[in-house]
What does this fold into?
Amino acid sequence: MQQCGQRQNLCARTERYCIMMNRIDLRGSRKISHVVPPAGPRCTGEVVRHAPGSFLPFGKCSLLLTVVLAALWMSGCKPATAVQATELRPRSADYIVRRVARHQVPARWLSGRARIDFDGEGGHERISAVIRLQRDSALMLAFRKYNVEAARVLVRPDSIFVLDRLNKQYLADDIGLLRRRFGLPFGFQELQMLLLGNPVLPGTQYEARIDSVWYVLESDGRRYDGAWWFGPDWRLRKMRLYDPLRDEELICRLDAWQPDEGGTLFSYLRTLEVFTPATGAWQVTIHFSKVTLDEPKSLKFEIPEHYTKVE
It folds into this structure.
């Protein structure tokens, strides 16, 4: 009874949000439509929760949502840029933070393709994806398996929608799915920062040190212990977050920093390693290609009327 009440309250809050922000159609339509620009999505206001194992666009529930919502990182055969072995000057933490902030990828739009390899306790799987991001608004991903679109995902600052093309189902949930399902300490803001290759710095005070050819920032936060490795060019090369209370760890590596088609430096190869007691250890390796920045693209997301909600 208590869970039912909580779900009704959540649905009511979601419905109010949709009425205010997205002009929801309350006449019984199940269709969610999202095209950016110019219009935002319409949604039914109902948050649908899925039972483990009930949503299987690739036969492995964890594969799709892990690859999609953790993340996301990535070109083909381009080699990683070598780091010159130069002696680094000691720098303060404040100095490093300022220099890193000046060298972030500032793009408002991102689009590209990716080859994604997933390795976990369930084995190995490879998929391809089209990725489009409008900063602070929406992230759309279309996944292909065996040359057909198997799934499409829309992530917004407060919500997640997933289409299972193979089984004609859809899932809708709040952004907290990242924490509940996979133990990832991410919201939409952190997700888009990592996708662009920018560091996620949740703390306020840091200590600085030199590790061989890297500048390192370390922080003992109120929730997470973090460490970030930067090259002499102030680009993020590695990030580690650890939750001592939950015994959960995330390590993200960013390599192959090269100019995109417009000349902006971008990390074309990403590796994400995660361990949680619930999911065990898994790894995602992502190779980006055909990356363009600051070129507006359509973020089309539409749920067909005949698709079934996953309860």
